[in-house]
User: Fold this.
Amino acid sequence: MNNRLLTRGLLPAIGLLSTAFIYSATCVAAEKKEPWQLAEETEVWEPVPAIISVPASGIPSDAMQLFDGKNLNQWQGAEGGEAKWKVVDGALVVVPKTGDIKTKEAFCDVQLHVEWKTPTLITDENGKLLEGQGRNNSGVFLQERYEVQVLDSYNNKTYPNGQAGSIYKQSIPLVNASRAPGEWQTYDIIFTAPKFDAAQKLTSPGYVTVLHNGVLVQNHFEIQGATEWIGKPVYKAHGCAPIRLQDHGNAMNFRNIWVRKL
Ligand code: MG
Assistant:
C-alpha cells in the first residue's frame, strides 16, 4: 500500500467508523434507564374510572333499581298494560296465568342482579310431586328474547340445558349451584347485546356470563339466537329491549333487582 492510498482512502474511512462507534456508544449510555423509568413506560393514567359507592347492604350508586320491595313502578305487562304480579312481604311474586312482565325501560349491554326464591311447595293441588320443567319454573329474559332459566333444580332432574343457570336450550351450566326451595338465590348476569347492521344482518352475536349464588355457571357464552322451546335459535334484528320475567304458571318470588348499563 502506498502512502497516497493511505491518506486518500483508508485513513478517512477509519476515522468515520471510529466517530460512528463513539456516537452510538454515547447514545446507548444516554438511553440506559433506571428500572423505575422503565416501569413508568407501561403506566396508563387516563381515563380515570368514575368513583361510585358500593354500600355493604344496598346497591351500587350507579345502578338502576328495578324492584326495591315496594312497588311495580318499573314494570308493565309483557303485552302492554299493567303488570299484574303482586308485592308480598317485599318480594315480587308471580301471579300464575297473568302473563310475563317486562321493564318499562329498554336496555342494551348490562350487568343485572336478580334474587329469586322457588316455593317450598313442590307438589300440585292433588299432592302429586312437581318434576322437571314443571317444578317452579320462571326465567329472566334479556332483551325479551334470551332466557337465563329460573327453575327449582335442587334434587330435580330435567334436561341440563333447561335447568337453573342454563341459557335455555342453548347452554348447560358449568355446575348446579342451586339452593333448596324456599332459600333466596342470586343471579349476577353480564350481558353483551348482539349487534346488527342497517341491513338487519348480525354483525356480532350476544354474549352472556352468569354467576349463580356467586358461582360461575356461564362463562362468556356466545348466544345462538332468540330462545326457542321448539327448534333451533335464530337471530332476528332488534334494538335495545326490556328485561322480561316469565310467568310459567308457578308462584316464583323475586327481589332486589337492579341493573347497570354498560
Ligand atoms: Mg323458564
